[in-house]
## 1
Amino acid sequence: MTSTLTTDTGSRLPQLIRRLTGDEKHGPSAHSTIDVLQVLYDRVLRVTPDTVDDPERDRFLLSKGHGPAAYYAVLAAHGFIPDAWLDDLAGPDSRLGHHPDRLLVPGVEIGSGSLGHGLGLAVGTALGLRAQGLLKPRVYVLLGDAELDEGSNHEAIAYAGATGLESLTAIVIDNSSTTHGWAGGIASRFTVNGWTADTVDGRDHTALYTALTGQRPPRPHLVVARIDSKG
Amino acid sequence: MRTAFIDTTAALLDEDPRTALVLADISASQFAPAGRRHPDRVLNVGIREQLMIGMAGGLALTGLRPIVHSYATFLVDRTYEQIKLDLDHQGVGAVLVSIGASYDGSREGRTHQSPADVALFDSLGGGWTVRVPGHPDEVTPLLRAAAATDDPVYLRLSEQRNTHGYPDADRLRVLRQGGTGAPLVVAVGPMLDPTMAATEGMDVTVAYTHTPRPFDTAGLRAFAGTEVVLVEPYLAGTSSAVVSRALADVPHRLLALGVGQTDLRRYGDPADHARWHGLDADGLRRSISAFLKSAHR
């Protein structure tokens, strides 16, 4: 079942993405994230262009930094960046590259591109917030299924589970792109380490919303968003 | 030095709620009391060095000041890409504190030796301050100064030490004054004592610093004649490029002494390795004498 929200941002997204013409290579990757990003920014994340520096904001870390067209389009739709920035992707004067840079783009929490860095940064962010008594913000980090091949993620998965990092939610876009696959499924790799996990249709906004808000403290939470293989 | 680090870090955790300590099992038992007082800010990730640096990046992104500690080879060599991307590229800093650099771990073999650590920081663009104390008395003020900023700082602790500490030797501090135009010998960190012994009776100026980055290029230009000798406790030549740039417009000759690149595949104690790398007083004297004589042929 697929349901589509009829928000203003949703209706604007297709034309915003079309403005990002320079990133054909990572097209499938960009479109794999669009539904999760829409649900997150429309309904889940407590962050706005006015609160990008507020310690109490929710954090969204895009670990899978390649193919950020959908991400940039969502940021533009929500007013974090001007629409005009979309017209010169990775151009000489552009602030938007094929991998995002947090120092260049308002609302972007981490610079990413190399796989296997976002989850560790997210663990540190969750711990840093907790140590300062900031217990309201949630930390969401988006990864790809093949990105989980990187061993750095396994360090973070084991540690976050063992220490009950309940403010942390990882989202894995599963388009079956990993070379050797994950026997037993992706979710089992997290749950065996003490996470809770929901595996849902990555195009179904209602199911995504339920999963993205379905944390079961004191455990960190995983949402596996399954979409069609990029072929 | 390690004791000074542990005591000072524990005190900083008590005094400054902005500080956090990230460990990967190394020195974890010594920090257990601090961990009981500050469970949210003393974080031992187990034997996971990539995560240790990634986490430090995340902590810094929330405004905390992470102090990160392990053996140099695990803290720096293994995590080079995390230092580059999770700290430098995010535009945040941390205080990385290593022990066991170069041949402190001579009996453990190559797996526990990291002579190239300072060269690795040179390869990054993040403007790292590199502190190489030569005495335990230098550790506390350097660590406190580092904790008070948000800058990227590498504090390289060693079991090799000099007889006297010079906490204020951020810049080149002359400890032996040669005649006018005498060759300048720069000793970094624990290389001071063997350098002083090696140059006994020579007409050279010996200057000491525990802070090779940023290198005191103004002091270098002020004290250097036409001959400069670097004596560094890490990879030979690590500071050559810095010195050459600083003296680009001045005719000069440079001898860069330090740890050789070759994996010796020998155990023994640090004094043996110092001798094999030519970094004991006798070896330094031979190298420096030969270099200075060769100038007058």
Note: Chain A touches chain B at residues 55, 101-103, 109-111, 114, 116-117, 119-132, 134, 151-152, 155-156, 158-159 (CB under 8 Å).
## 2
Amino acid sequence: MNRPRRATLVWTRRVGPNVYHQRFSDSLIARRAKAGQFVHLLPGSDHLFRRALSVYATDPRAETFDVLHQVLGAGTRCLAHQPIGTVIDTLGPLGNSFTPPARGTTPVLVGGGLGMAPLRLWAAELMAARSTRRGKPVAPIMILGVRTRELAVAPYQLRTLHVHPHWATDDGSLGFHGTAVDLFADMLRRNDWGPGHAMVYGCGPEPMMKALAELCIAQQVPCEVSLERSMPCGYGVCMGCVVTSRGASGYETYRRVCRDGPVFDAAAIVF
Amino acid sequence: MTTRASRPDLSVTLAGVHFATPIWTASGTAGTGEEIAAWCDTGKLGGMVTKSVSLEPRPGHPYPRTVETASGMLNAIGLQNKGIEAFIAEELPRLRQMPTRVIVNVVGWAIDEYAALAHRLTREEGIDALEVNLSCPNVSRGIDNGADPGWVGECTAAVRAATTTPIIIKLTPNTHDIASLARAAADHGADAISAINTLVGMAVNHNTFKPRLANITGGLSGPAIKPVALAAVYKIKKAVDIPVIGIGGIMSGTDAAEFLIVGASAVQVGTANFRHPDATTRIADELGAYLQSKGMTRVTDLIGRLEV
């Protein structure tokens, strides 16, 4: 039987405007969490519901896991300002995880804003289990989009993985001038990433995921997206976090992001 | 030190059915049973009330369906369910295996639909009671009809005639006179009343000027409604002799105790399950500890002890 966890806050770093990187100590979550999964943290006793945050990094040996989040309201503000050593009532790891790419296929990770969080852990897992393509190890390609340079948070976390992201900014202040999906489309044209050669993984704002899904469907590139929803329960009982999904026969139904996702085949989602 | 022998007896009997504890899950807050069973020992639950099931499948309302509010939440799920035949085929076999009482919550759009659901479920084993949802705030008839004592009486009579299973009528608080609704149910064959369902509410985003729920309005639940629910149970107990099951903002053992003191024979825990997956068993343990602190050996000693 699953049990709520008592995760201890190890440290908090402010890494961008209202953006916080936090590390928690919990052996089970550190050991079991896979890229795409999330933890459900109760910010404090004054808050009715937990906040769902993607797992950003894990260190099984140190028994820690990390999250990256933006302060959007009272709950995330409370979480960001908890003193070091605070024990946080936590559920997790919850939800499903990304599907590994076929052997020899280039994994392309496309993130927008804090959508980079689960993709960072996925990049770490992919780097640890690199397959080969034409005899060479296939490292993930990472494309990250933000509004402006100062929001390009935590690049140091990526450098330690030896993953060098391609940045896209809306204002052109860093890397490509445009969105991450625009940059991905540009790279698609210039690389051999057609059907059978690449597998795309996306996480970011829903309009971006819609654009990414449409591009991948048009180019016949398989794509998985990790979706975000407001989640009262996080374990499947409240039915609050639904997304419209298309079944095999075309029948549309609501599926729960917390329990059926948060990772979905992009072609199955009705954005 | 607490010994096994000194633990208070939490069992209650109502409508002829014995329940291990008076703490049940409320409709729509325990999934299909398997989700909550992964997090709490369902053998310690008094009963599990299913999400509302209707004759035909319902997709429910679009997202966003929930909003956190001050000490509560708004929901407009919209009665999403697979329909009665898929429920019987896919969910009931699993529910039947669970070591707790199973109460199936039914909802219709007309009286004959309620009767048809009750008749259909009577043929199935493993159902300890039916809870008849006359009060969902997220569908128009849930309020329009559920606040009319004449309709409540007529619907209760139709369900009563369709089944031999105990029936619990779940009432709306969105009325000026909940006692008259309870009397109508009791006079037409209800075995028990459950109260309250959620209160109609609304939340607005002051930045976008848009409602926070896709359905615009929804049902308010959680600690914010506990005083309303306690008053409803108090009024109903004064109006009818059948058992009442209290619902509304129960987050702790002492919250549950307050409903029992007012006269509820059992309680249902809803929103608390979203905060803590093991809320019901925690609350049962806390209720036991509370009874011990009062020197009581049976939970039935607490029921109706209100002093006014």
Note: Chain B has a mean pLDDT of 94.
